Amino acid sequence: MAQDPAQTDPARTDPAQTDNEPPTAAQVIADTQALLDPYPRRHLATLPTPLQPCERLSEALGGPEIWVKRDDCSGLALGGNKVRKLEYLMGQAIAEGASRVGTFGALQSNHARQTAAAANALGLGCELVLTEMVPRDDHDYVDNGNQTLFRILGVPTHRVTDDVSSAAAISAVEEAAAEAGEIVSWIPTGGSSPVGALGYVNAAIELVHQAVEAEVGFHRIVLATSTGGTYAGLLAGMDALGAGTAVTGFDTYEGAARSRAAARTLLDALGPMLGRNPVAEGSVDILDGYCGDGYGIPTREATEAIELFARTEGLLLDPVYSGKAAAGLIDVVRRGLIGDDERVVFLHTGGAPGLFAYSGEFR
Question: Which positions fall inside the Tryptophan synthase beta chain-like PALP domain (predicted)?
């Protein structure tokens, strides 16, 4: 069973407590929340997002008790996980005097959508550098889904094909900003910087608070991983809370080895930012084998997982991230790698607009 958040590092006790009294869960949560106070934040998300049991899905799989953390319900521009990172990234950009932000992604980038929406909400300019990295040229992919939303949001998009054209687009944005006397803050792909990952340290705190209120403990959180910010933030947050909850990622990007390395780099930076030692090496658990033929390329297993989640729980996943993570969860449950006695949280990272870019997969 996952460790009670109250049974944590004995060094973090209230001065009024005796040596024999561990801190309460509420005290641990408050202490961990305070670790984030030094970092500027702009509130953009609708929080907390729901935490709910998936009884029909659990029954269909016949394994562990599955719950879902609904970060698809985070509010901003149809929701998704990126808004949590953007709260801190936008806070940093504004604190540094930026009047414009720029970021990167594929043509159907969920991160780009939420960055554009966050910029609009905060009165900042925004530039999107979008790479044609997925081998698709059908109308739905190149013009529907998030592409429709970029047009509605009214943000400039720069379509590029490689590092050379990307560098040229960045230079053009920088030159135009300099002429206008503006500062551009560049946000990395996926918002996956140490500052961005703080958004998921905060999500870990939120999740543990909800678990305490519901009087349940969780053995494991499972999620899609790519650039590593969501994963690293959750793992660092759970470690800071002493929650004893494992975090398992399913690679959806460029291989688990690269995802592990990205997460490790972020974890090494997050430790000092939170006044702690970095999370131990052996704690990073990111699995290969679920990305298929590459980033943004649907798999049969993900399509089946999307349909199963929709038909048992009414949850809409996407083909690029959450659908592949769901396929990973189904696989490890069926192979007995997650015990029947476990209680597991599936982090729904959003991405439903992508369904309209991949509509042909569901005909």
Answer: 46-350
